[in-house]
Structures are given as structure tokens and as C-alpha cells.
Amino acid sequence: MSRPALLIAGTHSGCGKTTITLGVMAALARRGLAVQPFKCGPDFIDPSLHRLVAGRVSRNLDVRMCGVDWVRQTFARHGSSADVAVVEGVMGLFDGGAGSAATLAKTLDLPVLLVVDVRSAAESVAAVVHGFATLDAGVRLAGVIGNGIGSDKHRQMVAEAIGAHCAVPLLGCLPRSEAVAIPSRHLGLHMGEEHPLTGTGLARLIELIETHVDLERLVRIAATPRREEPAPGETTPANAGAPVRIGVARDAAFCFYYEDNLDLLRAADAELVFFSPLDDDRLPPDLAGLYLGGGYPELHARRLSDNRAMMAQVRAFAEIGRPVYGECGGFMYLCRSLADLDGHEFPMAGLYPFAARMQTRLRSLGYRRPQVVQDCLLAPAGAVLHGHEFHYSTIDTDGVAVPAAYVLEEGRPEGFVACGQTLAGYVHLHWGRTPEAAARFVEACRAAAR
After folding, report:
1. Which residues contact 127 (CB under 8 A, 6 or more apart)?
2. d(CA 97, CA 103)
């Protein structure tokens, strides 16, 4: 039997999809329902906001990056213990091909609620809804929520047009409100750990949803029968053995981790020990490896640089041959220096002779399939990994050549190797398609500890 579930999508990025998704999750949770949040796509930020309002870890569902089997198993495994699953889409409903919210909705047979920005339209909203409802017969568009209504008259015009021309019901319209706006910056919205919606903001958002959205009908839509879900599988990579302690950098500077990757490490008998390169002056004791994820080192460059004791510990740890894996922000931390937009350059850990420099424009964005060209911490030569890249910084190599463990589709080197067992680069890998990568990393840490 399938659990109640739905996907909240948008007509385009910036239409209010995240805010309304958060409001629906919070309102359902306030009714006493256990809400399991999910995020379509490779995003790190929205899942942190989901956790803030739902009180449960949000999981990424990305058909393109992780494959259909992984997505179905992840959805079944984590949704089975909840009263309702709420999935937030990515970009516009049909944007992204195999990685789109539409693809995910069809893969999981989810009813879709469409968020439409109505701030600059009235009757024409019906044409938008009609188009989204009829473009792909395999997508079950089950309801519409208007966002940005300016007046009761505006609401009536939108409702009458949709009622007259569309078979999709209008579940409600939210008025314009700056009180529930979530602040943003270069990589997206503020993280949930920064509490951008606590207190009056969250209470106001719940009030708006409860007042202006037909939650009873929304719950009924979520409960419509779907295809039978697979039995929840377990996360069990091979090569599990004696427990091994791996330090994971986690603070305001390093906060981008796929929760599934951490679970895969644990399933391979890793004991994850969290520490802060911002605040701690020593690594936790008895570590066999380090994992430095992405985040916002550029916002905390001075504090990271001033913490010389921690950088020295990380450098010494790598130099004695212990495995160190860094992604994006973690990679920048392991470079020689990091320069902010004002041109201030801050010394970093120095395991790579590179200078990371922030830019005002996005430098790289998209899915990546690294081809492994030499044996490394995560995979043997010939393997293919899967991930996503998104950053505003560039790397100045100063003409210094550093070995690369893999190359990207266009031939660009990635996954740079230092000190024999340090591997770092810009790509955020998800190990859903390659759980053996987590097991290989843990085994490398175990061998080094011996």
C-alpha cells in the first residue's frame, strides 16, 4: 500500500515554490502529521530548510544523478515511517530533462501541485495552468496554488479563469507578504541552520497557508492511490569491517552534504565524528580519515585562516598519508589561499598549490560524470562517478601541474591528488549509483589506521 504523498512544483524558478512547500510542510506538521520531506534535484539548501520546519532529515531524489532504482528505494525507505511525504520540485516543472520534477513525478507516480506566480497576471493564468496540465499526459497535475495575489478582486479573476478553462482545481491563493521572505545570497537561500524562518516568520507562513490554502483537499490529493512502492531496502555497501572513525567538517562554512552519502559511510562501518574548522583548534582524536564537504568558506575565510592550529592539524594529518576527501568548499579550504570579492587573500591549509578566487558571476553549473583515470580513494581506474557542480570561484594553478584522478566529459581534469591519499575537487559526488565508493573510502581509512 502506498503512503500519502505529493510533489509541489513551480512554473519557473522564483515563483515561490520553496516558501509554499515549507508552509505546507509546517502546517501539516502542526496538525500532528509526521511529514517526510524530499527534494527533487541536487540541492543542499532546500533540504536544510525542510528539516527546520518538518523536524525530519530531507532526502534528495534525483533520477538523473542517482538513477531510478536508488530514487524509488530512497523514497520508499524514508517515506514508509511518515504520515505523508512532501517532495519539493526543482526549477520549473518540466525543466531539467531526466532530472526534472516531471520525470520524478512520473517515476514515483506522484500527484503534482503547481505553484503559479500571479503577481503580474489575472485571466492569463488559466492559459499557463492549461498548458502545464496538458503538456505531458503522464504527469498528474492535481491542483494549483496561486502566489502573489494583490486583492480579493485579483483572486476572484484568477479563480474564475481557472475554473472556466481548466480541469485542475485551484486550492488557494497566497497574498503578497514580505514577512515570510527567506534571505538569499550567491548560492541560493540561507540554510536552515541559520534559522531564516524561525519565530514570527514561520508562524506567519503557517497562518497564511492555513488561511488561504485548502489543506483538507491537499491531504485528500496526497492520499489518492498510486502505484505500489518497492519494499524499503537497506543501505548496505560491501566491505564492511571493523569500525573506523572519520572526521566530518560540519559548521557554517562546511554544510553541504548529501545525507545519503553519510548513511553509506555509516553502513560501511564508519563512525562519523563531526568537528568545526571554524571553532575547533584540534581534530577529534583517533581519526582514520577526513571528509570536508562544500558550503561557504568564502563567507568565513578570515576566521578559517586565523584558525592556524586547525589548518596545521589538517595539513599534518594528510602529510602522514591519512585519507582526506574534499568537495568544492572543502577543496578551496585545502588550497594555498582563498581570495574574496574585495581581493583580500587569506592563507588556507596549503595541501594544493592553487589559489581559489571568488567571482561575481557563476563559473560552473551542471551534472557531472567524472571518468576515473587513475586509482583513487573512491574508485579504481575506469569507473564512472556521478555528481553535480555549482560554484562562483575559480582556481588559479599558476602553471603548477597536479595529478588528477578523473576527467569530466569535456576533458577537464578533476579530483586532484595530493600527499598520496588526499583527493579533492569541485564536483559534489552522490554515491547512490556507486555505493562501493563509500565502502572504498572507509576501507582506505581503515588500512591507513592499521
Report:
1. 165
2. 7
- Three cell numbers at 341? 570579492
- Grid coordinates standing for 232? 524499503
Phi, psi of 129 (to 5 degrees): -65, -45
Q: Smallest Cα–Cα separation from 54: which of 88, 100, 90, 77?
A: 88
Residues recognised as catalytic: 328
Answer yes or no: are the C-beta atoms of 216 and 84 closer than 8 Å: no
Q: CA-to-CA distance for 261 and 275, rounded, in angstroms? A: 17
For the chain, the domains span 5-222, 244-449
Q: How far apart are CA 5 and CA 85, in angstroms?
A: 4
- Distance from C-alpha of 411 to C-alpha of 105, rounded to nearest angstrom: 33
CA angle (59, 147, 133) in 5-degree steps: 75
Q: How far is C-alpha 160 from the geometric centre of its chain's CA atoms?
A: 37
- The amino acid that residue 382 corresponds to is G
Query: Using one digit for the tens of pLDDT, what is the confidence trace for 226-277?
Result: 987 766 666 555 555 678 999 999 999 999 999 999 999 999 999 999 999 9
CA distance 95 to 11: 9
Instruction: Using alpha carbons, list the distances in angstroms from residue 276 to 253, 255, 346, 449.
Output: 9, 10, 18, 22
Domain 244-449 in the same topology as domain 5-222: yes
What would the grid cell of residue 151 be? 486583492
For 21-51, write each residue's pLDDT tens digit: 999 999 999 999 999 999 999 999 999 999 9
Nearest Cα to Cα of residue 440 among 423, 427, 418 = 423
Match 511529514 to its residue by C-alpha cell: 35
For 231-363, strand residue ranges (E) read 244-249, 254-256, 270-275, 289-292, 294-295, 324-327, 337-339, 345-347, 355-358
Q: DSSP class of residue 396?
A: E
CATH architecture of 244-449: 3-Layer(aba) Sandwich (3.40)
Q: Which of 156, 168, 176 is nearest to 131 (CA)?
A: 168
Residues 445 and 450: their CA atoms lie apart, in Å, by: 9
As given in the structure block, the three cell numbers for residue 122 are 489575472
Residue 151 CB-density burial (10 A; 0-12 exposed, 13-18 middle, 19+ buried): exposed
pTM beyond 0.85: the answer is yes
Q: Which CATH class is domain 5-222?
A: alpha beta
**Cβ 46 vs Cβ 73: under 8 Å:** no
